[in-house]
Design goal:
Length: 340
């Protein structure tokens, strides 16, 4: 039977109810159901599953990007080995987090080292999967999981595209050094990207509203390689008459022609993602975020890859977080495909 994009999704269908195989799809999504170092909320390992479930309710015609589904979008199977590794790492991380870090305790230091080793294995796994997709000519997107899982995708894209720019939407700067004793903490992913991936030419951070003085100083001392846009400053500018369109032009100006987007769902207003690991008041509306993503491509730049992380479903069974994330994901897919 021919695929009908206006019909209800069939049971057991793929992401957005689509029938495409990996070979047929121009854009392939890699689920990474891993969380280990979240020190406040939890549940992000179930993010990919929640997005898949909610995606089957998304209408496939988009008024901005048209028919991105026609190029083919495929979500890879959830990897059970990563799920198991995440559960093990989370258990080892728990006493370290409860103690506020490893300190000088040998047992806690060993536990932190084991968690770092698990995170390195995940980074390598993501890097391998994304690198293979890029080599096959696919657009690759990653679905987390906590934000630490983005590092492998950033590495794969940066190696392939030296000079890459990174647009980072987040409530947090994620520039902490070995936070709570974990080198590969979710709170350190952009620090690790900046330190370990010299191919990245610029990191532009948007929506920041909960960060340390050290993270501000690190960006200020980066000779312009890390540019921060704090939510309070953007909100004040809009209150005083600056349009979001003007702010977005200013946000994008330092970025090169090829852009990777790393999107922590807590960059949105928390009414849109109330169960994310570390919700913070403020943030972008859905339409502001969608405008920002669209502006990357409308500016003549290419959105060459992305990740969407820190989506955590409602423990009581509500589908709002997955619903918002699935619709944001379709916008990401549409603009990444439009810019090919």
């Amino acid at each position: 039977m021919p695929f009908d994009p206006s019909a209800a999704a069939q049971p057991g269908s793929g992401i957005f109810g689509l029938p495409h195989s990996e070979a047929e799809a121009a854009l392939v999504l890699v689920p990474v159901p891993f969380e280990a170092t979240n020190s406040y909320g939890g549940g992000t390992s179930r993010g990919p599953e929640a997005i898949l479930t909610a995606s089957r309710q998304v209408d496939l015609f988009d008024v901005e990007t048209g028919r991105p589904y026609q190029a083919g979008i495929h979500l890879l199977p959830s990897p059970p080995e990563i799920e198991r590794l995440g559960r093990q790492a989370r258990a080892r991380a728990a006493p370290v987090i409860a103690a506020g870090g490893a300190g000088g305790a040998p047992a806690l230091a060993r536990a932190a080292a084991e968690v770092d080793e698990a995170c390195q294995r995940v980074n390598a796994w993501v890097d391998d999967r994304v690198s293979a997709l890029l080599a096959a000519g696919k657009v690759a997107g990653v679905l987390g999981g906590d934000h630490s899982v983005a590092l492998g995708s950033l590495a794969a894209h940066a190696r392939r595209r030296p000079g890459l720019g990174v647009l980072h939407v987040d409530a947090h700067a994620d520039l902490r050094v070995a936070y709570e004793g974990f080198t590969y903490s979710h709170a350190s992913v952009l620090y690790n990207a900046a330190r370990r991936l010299p191919e990245i030419s610029r990191i532009v951070q948007v929506g920041l509203r909960d960060l340390s003085e050290e993270e501000i100083d690190l960006a200020a001392g980066s000779s312009g390689r890390i540019v921060q846009h704090h939510d309070a400053e953007l909100a004040r500018g809009r209150a005083e008459g600056e349009s979001w369109a003007a702010q977005v032009r200013r946000i994008l100006e330092p970025l090169p022609g090829e852009v990777y987007l790393t999107f922590d769902i807590d960059g949105l207003d928390p009414s849109l993602c109330p169960h994310t690991g570390t919700p913070v008041p403020g943030g972008l509306s859905f339409q502001e975020a969608a405008y920002l993503v669209a502006a990357v491509v409308r500016s003549g730049r290419r959105l060459v890859g992305f990740d969407l992380v820190e989506v955590a479903p409602d423990p009581a069974g509500g589908e709002w977080d997955g619903n918002v994330a699935a619709r944001l994901l379709y916008k990401l897919c549409g603009w990444a495909l439009a810019g090919r």
